[in-house]
Inverse folding.
């Protein structure tokens, strides 16, 4: 699948934003600190920025509001509806944190639940597509949820350290979630080696005659389908990129989190800021691979 | 509404494509583009049409496949490998994944005849339906920013201003070898249903669970080249009648 930058940026940014929002909703941070106020605004900005960037790849973005209508059948529509519904408790929480320096427990928990549900809907857009075997697994949702949680708790640990508040509980959550994330992600990636569900033989129905291979494409140049679905990354590069994602997005942040537990709050904040940056970078690489390594069934008709 | 109609629809209009007969001339591709660029919805645009990097929107394309039986040579001269031309357009699936993923309600399957269509005024061009379709039946029109797909020539098949023989999809009407057939696959007595029953018509990628309406007829068994008697080049002993006389006269010259 073609890795479109708008979608990669959207899922990375909104994943971090929802993760942070979910952690803030738990009410473990004291909103009288300017850092915590800033964190509320940052979460909303990450979410809104992601949602906006996702409209850039639309052919007719002026009609985007119509995407809220088909929540009965479409995960994309459900994601849109939940994203907007979740904005309500998140905006109220942010308002009270910023202007009243108070945390509303019920609204906060509603925001946490909404954030989790929205990330789940995002993941199901991909996981529900049988035509893309790599994505068509519950592990896709597991990974998206864990990535959001890991990123969110990492950000929350950084905010706590900056604000001079207790950060060890967020750091511990982040270590556990980061470990779980990369275990799940490795499991997910191992599925890429499974035998393909659809082959040129099943795609043409000619398997009873012999081995089927493409003799000629319908046209000499690329078309929408080959541009959109025909992207292939060389396996050796993909393996290298996955290791880069694993080290920058998982291993180093875990090490830095462990180090931060031993440091004073000022030094911990610096170390955690580095961990957040590296984690975000690792997730971007992981998201790029999520698309670049996925093979679409239509490529059985295009020799890919 | 992008929920699918209750199944099955009373009529299942679709195509039956005979892989034994198709010669890969692409006439259906051209006639489809010609009819549909001026018909239902936005025109089928081309990008860089006179340049080196030409590409465009098509609703029907013909692929060509080589089929190699086990142990066959790659080159076709031994008579084992065969070339199969493979026209492909929307299969108007009963369980159409492209319809249910649509967030706007632009994609829908008609409850009365099962045709899958896009209401282009509602389409936001997100492309998710093209991702959901395993067959590559949907192509985004880059100029209009909306999804295009085969309409089964819905503006021909019910069109009473056309002569009756023209009330079939453009690809069917134009096929010079009669490899494409149109009809109601829900009716067991329709010509297409009988064809499917007699020839063992099959679904593409049944494992995707899409329940396609369109069916494909397999190529008939092929005579292997080594089983064909070589043409008599020198031996005329079996000739009879006129040929025997011509043979004997020519011998004497």
């Amino acid at each position: 699948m073609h890795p479109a930058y708008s979608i990669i940026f959207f899922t990375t940014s909104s994943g971090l934003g929802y993760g942070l929002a979910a952690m803030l909703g738990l009410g473990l941070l004291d909103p009288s600190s300017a850092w915590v106020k800033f964190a509320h605004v940052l979460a909303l900005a990450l979410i809104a920025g992601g949602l906006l960037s996702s409209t850039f790849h639309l052919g007719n973005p002026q009609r985007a509001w119509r995407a809220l209508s088909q929540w009965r059948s479409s995960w994309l529509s459900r994601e849109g509806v939940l994203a907007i519904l979740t904005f309500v408790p998140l905006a109220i929480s942010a308002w009270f944190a910023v202007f009243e320096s108070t945390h509303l427990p019920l609204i906060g928990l509603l925001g946490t639940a909404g954030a989790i549900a929205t990330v789940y809907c995002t993941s199901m857009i991909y996981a529900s597509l049988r035509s893309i075997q790599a994505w068509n697994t519950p592990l896709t949702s597991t990974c998206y949820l864990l990535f959001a949680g890991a990123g969110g708790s990492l950000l929350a640990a950084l905010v706590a350290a900056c604000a001079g508040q207790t950060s060890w509980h967020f750091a511990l959550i982040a270590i556990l979630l980061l470990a779980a994330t990369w275990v799940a992600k490795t499991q997910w990636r191992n599925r890429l080696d499974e035998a393909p569900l659809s082959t040129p033989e099943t795609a043409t129905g000619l398997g009873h005659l012999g081995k089927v291979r493409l003799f000629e494409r319908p046209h000499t140049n690329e078309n929408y389908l080959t541009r959109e679905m025909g992207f292939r990354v060389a396996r050796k590069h993909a393996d290298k990129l996955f290791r880069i994602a694993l080290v920058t997005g998982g291993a180093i942040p875990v090490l830095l989190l462990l180090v931060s537990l031993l440091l004073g709050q000022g030094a911990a904040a610096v170390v955690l800021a580095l961990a957040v940056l590296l984690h975000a970078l690792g997730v971007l690489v992981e998201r790029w691979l999520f698309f670049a390594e996925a093979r679409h069934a239509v490529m059985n008709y295009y020799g890919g | 509404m992008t929920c699918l109609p209750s199944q099955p629809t009373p009529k299942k209009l679709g195509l039956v494509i005979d892989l034994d007969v198709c010669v890969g001339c692409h006439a259906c591709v051209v006639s489809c583009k010609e009819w549909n660029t001026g018909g239902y919805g936005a025109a089928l645009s081309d990008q860089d049409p006179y340049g080196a990097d030409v590409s465009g929107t098509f609703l029907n394309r013909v692929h060509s496949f080589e089929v190699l039986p086990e142990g066959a040579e790659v080159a076709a001269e031994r008579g084992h490998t065969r070339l199969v031309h493979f026209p492909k357009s929307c299969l108007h699936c009963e369980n159409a994944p492209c319809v249910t993923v649509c967030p706007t309600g632009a994609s829908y399957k008609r409850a009365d005849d099962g045709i899958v269509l896009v209401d282009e005024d509602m389409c936001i061009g997100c492309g998710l339906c093209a991702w959901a379709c395993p067959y590559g039946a949907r192509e985004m029109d880059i100029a209009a920013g909306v999804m295009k797909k085969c309409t089964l020539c819905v503006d021909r098949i019910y069109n009473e201003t056309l002569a009756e023989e023209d009330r079939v999809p453009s690809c069917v009407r134009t096929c010079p070898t009669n490899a494409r057939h149109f009809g109601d696959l829900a009716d067991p007595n329709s010509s297409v249903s009988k064809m499917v029953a007699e020839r063992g018509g099959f679904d593409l990628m049944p494992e995707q669970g899409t329940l396609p309406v369109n069916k494909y007829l397999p190529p008939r068994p092929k005579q292997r080249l080594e089983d064909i008697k070589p043409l008599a080049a020198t031996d005329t002993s079996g000739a009879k009648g006129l040929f025997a006389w011509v043979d004997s006269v020519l011998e004497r010259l």
Notes: Chain A touches chain B through 59 residues (CB under 8 Å).
